Amino acid sequence: MSKFRNVTALVTGGAGFIGSALVRHILADTDASLVNVDALTYAGNLESIPGADDTGRYVFAQVDICDFAALSSVFAEHRPDLVMHLAAESHVDRSIDGPGAFIQTNVVGTYNMLEAARSYWQGLEGDKKADFRFHHISTDEVYGDLHGTDDLFTETTSYEPSSPYSASKAGSDHLVRAWGRTFGLPIVVTNCSNNYGPYHFPEKLVPHIILNALHGKPLPVYGDGSQIRDWLYVEDHARALFKVVTEGKVGETYNIGGHNEKRNIEVVETICELLEELAPENANSRASGKGFKDLITFVKDRPGHDARYAIDASKIQRELGWTPLETFESGIRKTVQWYLDNPEWWQRVLSGDYKLDRIGGG
Fold first, then answer.
1. Of 141, 173, 236, 326, which is the active-site residue?
2. Count of domains forming the chain
């Protein structure tokens, strides 16, 4: 839309996995300027947005969203037209081991973002105020799980979160909608399915399996691997996010899915098959004369593990014209190839060296 040309977008969590894909998309494919607000916790990596500083439209602010004063200063200095709030703790296993950080970042941090944005927005005038948007990016895990084979999560599915992570995201979703209804803050919300793609922190399933396989290590699969997820290529998600914040209707929720339901064991086996094709010379897996699939190891299931997630993404297709460009087969091939082509990125993550060049130190 023309009213969103030459805008300034404030993105929180822009050094994370989905956030960095969004930053890369905005800088490469739009004319918007961008302020990246990120605390650079363990999963934040500025090496995931190469060349950003060279665009002349990018500013980085190392700020924790739990620091209200610092957030307010960012709003006052950079005067954004759009806010895209992605900063969150997002790993289910970590939320089981230590729920407190998830409540602090995902609930208290989102509250701070809403209050900083509300104070700033209320001081705006004219078109600047009318066109302002606060876009909250969330997950399909807030809906709990699906037990039928044909059921899908829609935008009106009731919330039944299972883990501390999903419960904290559900809480943040409710806060955002309450600030929209009570205070009139112009909000939009999106809930997405499982993302995968380049620059994914190695603790998550897809990169963990790729890198373990390349190092000849066991490929752990929870339970019997029958859990079903809808897989969304992260660059497709980034396109959807910017379309929602610029074209979505205020107060609405949009589910973003990849139309690619796969059992976890299918994902792992597909990665193994691709590595057999793309990295046949890999010595680590060949030392014992076995293939990559021989490394698969079934481990005790995660507590409260949801059985199936599946997104109905027909609303965003119908109302905004977005559909994913990648199938799972094309996206996972691109992902595996990216990890094979970019060992310097993941080697620095695995070694911890990516933390050394940060503003404010490691």
1. 141
2. 1
As beta bridge partners, residue 82 has 9, 133
Residue-wise pLDDT for 76-112, tens only, equals 999 999 999 999 998 788 889 899 999 999 999 999 9
233 is catalytic: no
Angle (CA) 144 146 149, round 5°: 165
Q: Can you read off the two tokens belonging to residue 30? A: 């739009």
Structural domain of 187 = 2-200+230-263+308-328
- Secondary structure tally for the chain: helices H, strands E: 14, 12
Q: In one letter, which amino acid is 315? A: K
151 lies in some domain? yes
Query: What's the predicted TM-score (pTM) here?
Result: 0.93
Per the annotation, the verdict on 140 as an active-site residue is yes
Let me know if residue 283 belongs to a domain: no
Instruction: Scan for tokens 């004369």, then name that residue.
Output: 289
Catalytic residue among 64, 81, 89, 140: 140
Which residues contact residue 206 at a Cβ distance below 8 angstroms, ignoring those fewer than 6 apart?
196, 200, 267, 271, 332, 335
Give Cβ neighbours of residue 46 (< 8 Å, ≥ 6 apart).
Answer: 15, 40, 60, 357, 358
CATH number of 161's domain: 3.40.50.720
Residues 164-216 have pLDDT tens digits of 999 999 999 999 999 999 999 999 999 999 999 999 999 889 999 999 999 99
Query: Is residue 120 in some structural domain?
Result: yes
The answer to whether the beta carbons of residues 72 and 119 sit under 8 Å apart is: yes
165 is known as an active-site residue: yes
Using the Cα atoms of residue 227, residue 206, residue 281 and residue 348 in order, give the sign of their dihedral.
negative
Output DSSP code: residue 106: I
**Tokens found for residue 219:** 């490929």
Selecting among 58, 120, 143, 165, the annotated active-site residue is 165
The maximal CA–CA distance of the chain, rounded, in angstroms, is 69
Question: Would you say residue 78 lies in a domain?
Answer: yes
Pure H helices in the chain: 17-29, 68-78, 92-97, 100-102, 109-122, 126-130, 164-183, 205-214, 234-247, 264-278, 283-286, 314-320, 328-341, 343-351
Identify the CA nearest to 240 among candidates 314, 357, 321. Answer: 321
What residues of the chain score a pLDDT lower than 50? 1-2, 359-362
